[in-house]
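Translate sequence into C-alpha cells.
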Amino acid sequence: AIREKADIIGLSALMTTTMMRMKEVVNLVREQKLPFKVIIGGAVVSSSFADEIGADGYSKDANEAVKLVDRLLTYE
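Result follows.
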C-alpha cells in the first residue's frame, strides 16, 4: 500500500480463523499513522465486527465495496 500510494486497503476473510488478522492490519495502520482507509468484507465478518476492530467500513459484497470506497474518497 505504501509503495503503490494506495488510498484504501481492502481485506476479506472467508474463515473465522483469519478475522483477527484484520484487526492486526487496522492496528498497524493506526499505530504507524499511515494515511490509508481500511475496509473489510467477506463471509464471516459484519459491520459490527468492522466497528469493533476500528475499520473504516464494511461491505457485504464487491458492488457495495465500490460504493463504500466512493463514499470514503469523496469525503476526504
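Note: Helices lie at 16-31, 47-53, 62-74.
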